[in-house]
Write a structure and sequence with these properties.
- It is a single chain.
- The protein has 5 helices and 2 strands, in the order H-E-H-H-H-E-H.
- The protein is 77% helix and 5% strand.
- The protein has 166 residues and is mainly alpha-helical.
């Protein structure tokens, strides 16, 4: 009787262990950074952002050059003009400084907003593709491999790129 109980317990443990083994989740990894970096739409977006950044930089440089030119002029003429004129010029220089700082801050905000507006739909498209490929291949979990210390499982990066058409 004792042997039957031991055999029965061993059978239950064996069945439980086999179910645990088959119940393990299928996992894969994908490198979203690589996908985004090589995505044609992202490359186009980066060119747009670079062009916009160059426009902002050129305008900023123009404002700084104008500021420096006026500052030099006012410094050389300060001894020959009245205190009232110097006070007006000092206020004008301070206003120019404020406009330059405001322009730089607004340009940075606009550039960040533009980048966000461009990248978010592309990232959503990549995520949808990852889900599609993962489900088609029977994976329950897909992690971003760019931050993994050990990525020894299936890599779906190439499959996702293929699904996205590049």
């Amino acid at each position: 009787m004792k042997q039957i109980k031991t055999l029965l317990i061993a059978a239950v443990l064996l069945i439980g262990a086999s179910q645990t083994i088959t119940a393990q989740a299928k996992m894969a990894h994908v490198d979203t950074g690589e996908i985004m970096a090589k995505m044609p739409a992202m490359l186009d977006a980066q060119k747009q952002l670079e062009a916009l950044s160059k426009t902002y930089d050129a305008e900023y440089k123009k404002m700084v050059d104008e500021y420096q030119t006026k500052l030099k002029k006012y410094e050389t003429e300060s001894a020959t003009v009245t205190d009232a004129v110097n006070a007006d010029r000092s206020k004008e220089v301070q206003d120019m400084q404020k406009r330059i700082v405001d322009y730089r801050d607004n340009a940075q905000k606009e550039l960040q907003q533009k980048e966000s507006d461009i990248v978010k739909p592309l990232m959503d498209k990549v995520k949808a593709s990852i889900q599609k490929v993962g489900k088609a291949k029977g994976f329950q979990y897909i992690v971003d491999g760019s931050s993994l210390l050990l990525a020894d499982g299936p890599n779906l990066t190439a499959d996702v790129k293929k699904d996205l058409g590049f």
